[in-house]
Write a structure and sequence with these properties.
It is built from ten helices and three strands; from the N terminus they run ααβββαααααααα. The chain has a three-stranded antiparallel beta sheet with strand order 1-2-3. Strand 2 and strand 3 form a beta hairpin. The longest helix is centred in the last third of the chain and has 27 residues.
């Protein structure tokens, strides 16, 4: 039934896709504007007291704007708006996950079986950008860097604002993992690093909330160092 509905619509509207009630019962509505510059996605819900479907939440994706969200974010155009969540470091991970899955579900290749190659490629491009954006917001260091980028603040490899004491401690922890002989030893070191990470996450959250971006930048660099140690612990093997 869905395939036949799709075929009839595409025959009538070769570029724009206006889904029939059969599609709306599935719970997703996808619309291509005539110029194929945007993809509109609505999650449809039905109220028991109202036979008219509601459109909550609504996503609007433009390829150029998504590229800017990823590489040139601003206060008015960023990934937090893309995923319909508040722009803060201690973001709502549950809502991020829910909206991410809704978007990917709507962009699933199976939903474009009746579409033109141009529409399929466009949807794939949007889906790829969404995956990259989700990854940036989910990881501690990448999310911190992204929030700073919105404020036009960059973190450079040559930055020397971190204390030598912290750098030495991180180096020693990394070397301890490398020289470990058992998984138990590694787990102990990783536990110590996770405690340090929890502290830095708390501090950077406070810094962003108070708009102290200088301190947030320092904590972001520390978080990045600690993540590298955790990665070393994750892939440790007996030498």
């Amino acid at each position: 039934i869905v395939s036949n509905c799709c075929r009839r619509v595409v025959q009538k509207f070769p570029i724009a896709l206006l889904l029939s009630p059969s599609f709306k019962r599935i719970g997703l509505e996808i619309t291509f504007p005539m110029k194929l510059n945007n993809i509109y996605i609505r999650q449809l819900t039905t109220n028991a007291t109202n036979t008219q479907p509601a459109t909550q939440p609504e996503f609007n994706f433009n390829e150029k704007e998504l590229w800017e969200c990823l590489h040139k974010p601003s206060l008015s155009n960023n990934l937090f708006k893309t995923f319909s969540i508040d722009a803060r470091y201690d973001l709502d991970f549950k809502k991020l996950e829910q909206n991410y899955k809704k978007i990917l579900m709507a962009l699933h290749p199976d939903k474009f079986a009746c579409k033109t190659e141009e529409e399929k490629q466009y949807a794939e491009s949007i889906s790829s950008a969404i995956n990259e954006g989700y990854s940036r917001l989910k990881q501690h260091s990448k999310r911190a860097e992204y929030l700073l980028e919105i404020q036009n603040i960059r973190i450079e490899e040559k930055d020397t604002d971190i204390s030598q004491t912290f750098l030495i401690e991180v180096m020693e922890l990394s070397e301890s993992i490398e020289n470990s002989k058992t998984q138990t030893q590694v787990d102990g070191i990783v536990g110590q690093v996770n405690e340090m990470m929890d502290h830095e996450v708390q501090e950077i959250t406070k810094a962003f909330e108070s708009k102290n971006f200088i301190q947030a930048r320092i904590h972001a660099m520390k978080i990045k160092y600690l993540e590298n140690v955790l990665i070393a612990g994750k892939y440790w093997e007996v030498s």
